[in-house]
Design a protein that fits this description.
It contains 3 helices and 4 strands, in the order ααββββα. The chain is of the alpha+beta class.
Length: 192
């Protein structure tokens, strides 16, 4: 594989995902048919890596799509006024309750840890968490578009490489008088 292919891999998107090589001229990447298999394997390996990244990014985006509305819902809870709600006593039994305003709230931090925060500090924390989650979701969407574009670029490069190889085979076949074997491997028959 040529060094041009390796040098193009150094360019990345803002989150470090490398750009796929764009194959305009196959001759820039392979100089003979012998290099085609290695280059094809390299392209297929890159496609697999991009698909793996795409699946992981889709999972992360799905988690963020659930997380953002939960954080927003928590932020929308009234903090300075009484809250009337219902809560479950049993599977089919609910009771109404009025929750008086409070000076502190409890937030789940994860790993079975809950911490008490003053209301203003909790709102600040939740707003920053919301902004971070929304930015992460935007980044995921941008990365998914980028990954799809890179997969398509590599699929086109693979097709161009394959078509170039077929063209070279046909040229060799035509140069050899239509034989499937290269000129140095032709069988010499007696009487012509």
């Amino acid at each position: 594989m040529s060094t041009k292919l390796q040098n193009k891999d150094t360019a990345t998107n803002p989150r470090g995902i490398p750009f796929a090589p764009f194959v305009d001229k196959v001759e820039d990447y392979v100089s003979s048919r012998a290099e085609v298999d290695g280059t094809m394997k390299s392209f297929q390996e890159m496609i697999s890596k991009y698909q793996f990244m795409e699946v992981n990014t889709q999972r992360r985006a799905a988690g963020l799509k659930e997380k953002v509305p939960d954080i927003q819902k928590t932020l929308d809870m009234p903090g300075s006024e009484s809250l009337e709600t219902t809560f479950e006593l049993n599977d089919t039994l609910y009771a109404k309750a009025v929750i008086p305003p409070t000076d502190e709230v409890y937030l789940w931090l994860g790993a079975n840890v809950m911490l008490a925060y003053p209301v203003a500090e909790a709102e600040t924390l939740l707003e920053s968490k919301l902004a971070t989650a929304q930015q992460s979701l935007e980044n995921c969407e941008e990365d998914l578009d980028f990954l799809r574009e890179q997969i398509t670029t590599l699929e086109v490069a693979t097709a161009r490489l394959y078509n170039w190889e077929v063209t070279m085979k046909r040229k060799e076949k035509a140069e050899n008088g239509g034989d499937d074997e290269p000129a140095d491997q032709k069988k010499i028959l007696p009487n012509g």
